[in-house]
């Protein structure tokens, strides 16, 4: 079978190669991959920034945002059926020694087939088949929202009047959609033009788009008020830490972006310290997601799809075939919003 793999920590090493088709045991399922979404993590792995091959191997099949069809099940598998659509979860093992498929010590899903235990496969209804690659990033959004709301249970009767999402890339837009589907007032801030697809996607779900070309975070807060919850999805630590200033008293901010490791800047640490302590504010990070978040993500996607038909689909802006994998791992800026590789060659 064909697969796209990298030599970890080697720049631009992604290549299309032939690998043996996986053979399942009694308690596994063989999945025929339908489509795989590409994100910044894949691009950074191909740039050699991180990524780890499975033990005793020197290549890593990449791709972690997948949807596939059950092709074959082992004799002991009872809860899956041939032909069903499934989305695989990514992280395996506990937090001290974990693997992540397509990222760390386990092959990913950018191959014609993969095998998996049913515990790591979440069923997807056929109506959501086209947006299957968005379920993994939606699960990241879902986890961030769940954690923020759980943290804020520390405050009796708290509910956010306005929520700010920083960044209108795929994750920022999925956060916006998920929050809007739960009925929250959402502002989404990005550098894109106010007539861009990103801006329109925010507005299509009843969110308010805030264009960084027209305003600053400070001016925005003067007009719209401080934000009770902030989700940072730009990976720009300057934006992240300047947004702390517009977090309301008792507010919480979730950092989701991975920033450049060598980035430093002069900020008043004492001011930041006091702003957090004296305002009873919380700053936290969130990464990865569990099966529960995938299940919630599917429920959220169903809701979004029925409230705003076509909006989820519209953020898959770049469809590619497997042979176009070279194009898929170019710079992040190569995509309008989300790039997806379709295994059957149809785009
Ligand atoms: Zn991802």
What this model shows, in words?
The protein is an alpha/beta fold. Helices cover 27% and strands 27% of the residues. It has ten helices and 19 strands. The protein has helices at residues 40-46, 135-151, 170-181, 197-204, 217-224, 237-243, 269-278, 291-307, 311-314, 325-328, and strands spanning 2-6, 15-18, 29-38, 60-61, 65-73, 85-88, 91-92, 99-101, 105-106, 113-116, 121-124, 163-166, 186-190, 208-211, 227-232, 247-255, 282-285, 316-321, 338-342. Strands 3, 5, 6, 10, 11, 18 and 19 form a seven-stranded mixed sheet that branches. Strands 14-13-12-15-16-17 form a six-stranded parallel sheet, with helices on both faces. The longest helix has 17 residues, at 135-151. It starts with a strand and ends in a 5-residue tail after the last strand. The relative contact order is 0.15. The mean pLDDT is 94. Bound molecules: zinc ion. Zinc ion binds at residues 39, 41, 64-65, 136-137.
Write the layout of secondary structure elements.
Layout: E1 2-6, E2 15-18, E3 29-38, H1 40-46, E4 60-61, E5 65-73, E6 85-88, E7 91-92, E8 99-101, E9 105-106, E10 113-116, E11 121-124, H2 135-151, E12 163-166, H3 170-181, E13 186-190, H4 197-204, E14 208-211, H5 217-224, E15 227-232, H6 237-243, E16 247-255, H7 269-278, E17 282-285, H8 291-307, H9 311-314, E18 316-321, H10 325-328, E19 338-342
Parallel strand pairs: 8-9, 12-13, 12-15, 13-14, 15-16, 16-17, 18-19
Antiparallel strand pairs: 1-2, 1-4, 3-5, 3-10, 3-19, 5-6, 6-11, 7-8
Helix pairs in contact: 2-3, 2-8
Bound molecules: zinc ion.
């Amino acid at each position: 079978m064909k697969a796209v793999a990298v030599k970890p920590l080697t720049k631009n090493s992604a290549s299309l190669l032939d690998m043996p088709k996986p053979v399942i045991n009694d308690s596994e399922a063989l999945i025929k991959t339908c489509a795989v979404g590409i994100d910044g993590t894949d691009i950074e792995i191909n740039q050699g920034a991180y990524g780890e091959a499975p033990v005793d191997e020197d290549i890593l099949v990449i791709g972690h945002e997948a949807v596939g069809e059950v092709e074959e099940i082992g004799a002991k598998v009872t809860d899956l059926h041939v032909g069903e659509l499934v989305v695989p979860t990514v992280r395996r093992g506990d937090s001290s020694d974990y693997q992540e498929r397509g990222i760390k010590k386990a092959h990913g899903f950018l191959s014609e087939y993969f095998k998996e235990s049913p515990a790591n496969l979440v069923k997807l209804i056929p109506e959501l088949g086209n947006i299957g690659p968005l379920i993994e990033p939606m699960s990241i959004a879902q986890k961030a929202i769940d954690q923020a709301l759980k943290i804020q249970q520390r405050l009796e009767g708290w509910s956010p009047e306005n929520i700010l999402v920083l960044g209108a890339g795929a994750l920022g837009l999925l956060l916006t959609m998920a929050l809007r589907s739960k009925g929250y007032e959402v502002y989404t801030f990005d550098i894109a033009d106010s007539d861009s697809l990103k801006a329109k996607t925010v507005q299509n779900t009843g969110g308010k788009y805030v264009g960084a070309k027209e305003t600053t975070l400070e001016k925005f807060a003067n007009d719209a008020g401080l934000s009770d919850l902030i989700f940072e999805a730009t990976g720009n630590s300057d934006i992240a830490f300047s947004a702390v200033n517009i977090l309301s008293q008792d507010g919480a901010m979730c950092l989701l972006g991975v920033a450049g490791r060598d980035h430093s800047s002069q900020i008043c640490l004492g001011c930041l310290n006091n702003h957090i302590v004296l305002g009873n504010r919380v700053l936290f990070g969130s990464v990865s997601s569990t099966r529960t978040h995938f299940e919630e993500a599917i429920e959220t996607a169903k809701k979004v799809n029925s409230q705003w038909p076509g909006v989820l689909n519209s953020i898959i802006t770049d469809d590619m075939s497997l042979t176009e994998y070279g194009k898929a791992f170019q710079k992040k800026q190569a995509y309008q919003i989300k790039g997806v590789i379709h295994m059957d060659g149809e785009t």
